[in-house]
Amino acid sequence: MTALENFTPLIGGIPITVDGQIVGGVGVSGAASADQDEKLAIAGANAFTPGAGAASGSTPPVSYFEKRKVDEAFSKGAILLDGSDSRNYMVHASRREKPGQAEIHTKDADVIYVLEGSATFITGGEAVDAKTTAPDELRGTSIRNGETRQIAKGDVIVVPNGVPHQFLEVTNPFLYYVVKVR
Q1: How far apart are CA 163 and CA 78, in angstroms?
Q2: pLDDT value of residue 141
Q3: Which residues of 136-152 are buried (b: 16+ CB within 10 A; e: fewer)?
Q4: Which residues contact 168 (CB under 8 A, 6 or more apart)?
Q5: What is the DSSP string of 54-120?
Q6: pLDDT tens-place string over residues 48-75
Q7: Which of the pair, 98 or 86, is modelled with greater confidence?
Q8: Can the peptide bond before residue 164 be classed as cis, meaning omega within 30 degrees of 0?
Q9: CA separation for the pair 109, 121 (Å, rounded)
């Protein structure tokens, strides 16, 4: 291609490959240098490649939370792992002392593991008077036509994204881990 008349090859164009097929491309021009153009194009193309982050050495570090920090998080309800470092998950040490509003997470699935206490938990149906409270988060006053179940210590329940859910009749305290997966 360098032999073509009126043609100047530049770096910064990278093909997007999905399942071994080229499906498009990413072209970057105008960064501080041609090398940076290429790095940005590669990063964009890698967004479509499963496991590309691990191959490029950008794997998030292992996270460890000692008992003292976990106990402290459960004493008030707190986020242990916030989903930064390109993670598609978060870990919450959750505490409830009373019922809550109906919730809908449009992007996050909740994997809930009950550590202590019990609650009436409603899933599905329709959230009443749902309003956006944060990006991709809705809250409502209650749930209509949902499925009611009792959950208690040792139980695990998975609530897919977009499914209304609500805690009612909770013991005090009701402690549970939530792994939020996006």
Answers
A1: 23
A2: 98
A3: eebbbebbeebeeeebe
A4: 99, 119, 120, 121, 122
A5: HHTT-PPPP----HHHHHHHHHH-EEEE-S-TT-SEEEEEEEESS---EEEESS-EEEEEEEE-EEE
A6: 666 554 445 567 889 999 999 999 999 9
A7: 98
A8: no
A9: 16
